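Case study 2.
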Amino acid sequence: MPKSIIVEGSTTKEAIEKGLKKLNVSKDMVEIKNLEEEKKRSFYSILAPRVVKIEMTLKENSEKSKENKDIIKKKSINKNIIEIEEASKRVEKFLTEIVDKRNKIDVSINDFVININIDGEEINNLIGYRGTTINALQILASSVANKNVSSKIMVILDIGEYRKRRQKTLEELAEKIAKTVIRTRKPITLEPMSAFERKIIHTKLQDNDKVKTFSKGEEPHRRLVVSLK
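Prediction:
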C-alpha cells in the first residue's frame, strides 16, 4: 500500500473521500495537505471546472494499526460463523424433539441468518390460527439460537411455505385497504399482527404517494394503521 497519494476532486471533501476509499483507511489514520488549487482550462469554455488537489499521507503505525484491525475483524467474523453453525445445530435438535418425526426439518444458513423450513404431513397444527403457532415456534427457536452468543442471530421459520402464501395475501390486502382509505378518506386500523406481518404491509405501501402506515399499541396487540398522507 502506498504511504502517500495525491488525489483530485471538485471539492476538498470529495478529494478526501476518494483518497480514503483508495487507501481503505479512516480519516484519523492519515495526514491531509491541501495542495495548490488548479483550474483545468478549456479552449472552448470560459468557465473552467475547479479542481482541488490534496496529498494524503498515512500516519506512522497506521498501516500496522489497519492490519491489526483487519485481523480483529477476521477473528470476529470467524467467531460469528462458528457461533451461528453451533446455533443452527441447537435449533435443529430442539425442533426435532418437539416436531412429529414424520416431518422433514431443513435448516440452512444464509448471510448469518438461520432459515428453517418444516414440511410433511399434518403440518397445519404447527402453523395455528393465522400463524400464531408458527410465530411462537419461531420465538422459541430464536431463543435457543441466541443462547450464549456474542451477536444476535436472526431465525426465520417457515412451515409448508406458509409465510410465502401469507405474504402474498397480506400484499393483496394492503392494496385493497389503501384503495379504501383513498376512497373514504378515513384511516383503517387492522387487527393485531406480528412484526413480520406488519412489515410486509409497511413495505408494500411505502412507495404509495397517497397513504402512509404506522403502528400503535404494545405487543402482542400492536396494530397497523393505514391513513392518508
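The chain has six helices and ten strands.
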